Each structure stands twice: as structure tokens, then as C-alpha cells.
Input
Amino acid sequence: MLITIQKALKTDAKKLTEIMTRTFDEEARRWSVSKEERDYNIQPPGYSSVEMTNYMIDELTYYKIIYNQELVGGIIVTITGTSFGRIDRIFVDPEYQGRKIGSRAIELIEEEFPGVRTWDLETSSRQINNHHFYEKMGYKTTFETEDEYCYIKRMENSCGSENRMEDKDISKAQYENCQMEASEFYQVNLERSSYSNSNLMNMHITNCNLSHSTFRNINFKHSYYADLNLSYSKMRFVTLGGVCFIDTGLGEDRDPLSFERCDLEGTKIHHSNLRNLEITDCDVTGMTINNIPVEELLEAYHREQKK
Output
């Protein structure tokens, strides 16, 4: 029995998506999850989408799991800084489960990133077998809710311990003219913190709660935003030149977007769902739908109305 992990390639996306879909659909069936009450810890958003798989291969650390030269699953991780890792997803084809493939894949990931001293993950509260599995792998629960369990595993790794501050209360501290380049923060409570006149270039913010935050007078040039929940957010006086939205939807509630007093000249919309889209009191000069000028369509419509 030979189990290995290899970096996933775009050419693996279709096969990986098929395996992930089979795996998570089987888990949903096993734990009696109906479509109406979907459990996103069992069937995460985009799990059956090749486009989402391509995104994760591009942007996350995605490994395929090989069993005796056969692709049988995947493990997706996020590495933050040099010391912190998160297992975002791990899946093994139901046909190959029960052969210690998942446990070996986790061991191989830990070996692949020996500098990571803290790993965490989340799983559904329904999946009792997962709880036993992760605890057997050395993970301990950090908190439990009705919907999910969160786990953490601290590795026996003293790398960088000389600069480590752990379990300290430094609330309301003030830092001025301090050099904090390449600092790492994990499970840190920064609620109501403020940053002003500071260099925050090349920051990586992952799996953080930024709800109710305020960003004002910020240079976000060449920034990248992915896998975000921006529901009910407001953007005012925002320059969007050259911005591109890909594989983006309206979420579960399907609350529509609203554009008011916006300059969208030259905007292109392709392969999108525009049902029930309303355009009112707008300048549509030069606007086309499927290469048909909208002005001509409107003229033809008004001629028909006059007959």
C-alpha cells in the first residue's frame, strides 16, 4: 500500500471535483442532511463546482491524494505566515475509505510543512466519525456548537519560540514607531483595534472576522479578494476601474445588487444570470445585448406599442 500526496494541477480539477462531490454527497446521505437544511460543513459552498476547484488549486495549497498510483482524494490547506496551518478540506473517495488513507494524508501534510506548529480545522457536529478520527490524530476541540466542532493540534516544534508571546493580556497597549515586519497573529482578539498611518503592504488575512469594520482612506491597489461574504456591505466613492468579478453570486437569500448613480461605461457582462434585472432612467447609448443595440430594441418596442 503506497499513499502519497502531490500538488494538484489544473488538469486534475475535473477528477478532483467528481471525487469531492461523491464524497460529500455520500456524507450528507449518511448523516441524513436534506437539501433544505444543507450543512455547509458537510457540503461546503462550491464543492461540486470545477470552477471552485480551479480557484482553490490557484489560490490555496491543494494536494491530491494518490493511493497505489490512483487519484483517490484531496487535501486543501491554508498556510499563514510560517507557523500556522489550517486544513480547509480533506476528502477520500467513499470507495477507498477505511484504508487509513486520510490519516496518512494528514501525516504527510504535517511532514510537508515542518515549521507549522499549530494546525486547526472545523467539522460538522453531525459527523461523529470525524470527531473520533481527528482526536485520534492528536486534535483537541477548541469549542463546540450545535452545528460544528472546531479542532486544534499543537505540534512539538519550538521553531521561533524565542520571539513568541503566548497567553498574555496586552489589551489597550499602544505601539508607535515600532518595527513589526513579518509578525504573525493567531487566535488573537483584536476587536476595536485601530491602525493609522501604518505600512500594511503584503498582509495576508485569512479566516478572520472583520464584520462591522471600517476601512477609510485606504490604498487597496493591486489587492486580491476571494471567498468573501460581502452581503449587505456598502461601498461609497469607490473607484472600480479594471475590477473583475468572477464566479460570484448573491448568496442564499438572493438579495439583489443595487447600483445607484454609478458610472459603468464600457462594462462587460458575460455568461451571467440577469433574470429580473431592472434598469431604470439610465443612459444606454451604445449598450448591446447579444450584439443587438438596445436603442434599436427600444425603438422597435415603442413602434409596436403605437400600433
